[in-house]
Every structure is written in structure tokens, then in C-alpha cells.
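Notebook entry, structure prediction.
Reason for the run: the old model in the group folder had no record of what sequence produced it. Starting over properly, with the input documented here first.
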Amino acid sequence: MRFAHALLKPINASTTILLAVFTMLWGAWLLGTWSVFGAAHTFDGMREIAPEWAWGITAVVVGVAVLYGALRPSYGSLMRGTAASGAFWLCIGLTLFLSDWRNTGGLTYTFIATYSWFAYLNIKVNHDAGHDWSDRE
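New structure, fully documented this time:
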């Protein structure tokens, strides 16, 4: 019960900033001059859905949305950003699992999706209860 109660406390805005920075860096990595998807068959499913640059741009846009919502601070922007982050990372996690169910990338990205959805729900629950969702005074 202590753990469940702790999860309901307002999330620290810094943790969503870290999520945003990771997402943007991940996207920027895909936009580099080297081939990421060609390095391993794990990315075959992602390559079939869209080219690297499309995944990269999407990640950067999602990361910027989360960062904007956290730094502004803007409840609506942060809600849209964390929801988009959850959907984006879940899509990647599931695609990696479908490409190779034994890879750890599927587990890792599904966890990041879970964290994104947790952030979304935490912010919503605390906003609806009238609590501050950021660490700002």
C-alpha cells in the first residue's frame, strides 16, 4: 500500500524532462549519417513500417512536446506529450518484440512506454485532485 500511495504523489517535472531528452537524443541518433536499422535484424519490423528518418523525426517531435510541457509548464501540453511518448515507445517496443521476441530492446522500450503512461496518469490524477504536477513553486 505504501508503494501505491507513493505512486500517486505528484511526479517531479525533472523526470519528464529526462524522458524528453532521451526521446530527442534517440531520434537525433537515427537522423545521423550512419545506418542504425541496417546494424541488426531487430529493427526489421521498424524498417518495414517507416524509414529511419521518419522514426527519428517523430522521436524528436515527441521529445520536444514533452519538454515544452514540462518547461512551460503547461498541463495540456505535458498531457499530450506524455501520451504521445507512451504510444511512440509502445509501438517501438512491440515492433522490436515482433522482429525478435528474445531481444532486450523490446523489453526496454516497453518499459519506457510504461513510464510515459505512468507520467501521463500521474499528472492527470494529481491535476484532477487539484495538486501541483510539477516541482515548481
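Summary: The CA atoms of residues 12 and 135 lie 5 Å apart.
The old model has been moved to the deprecated folder.
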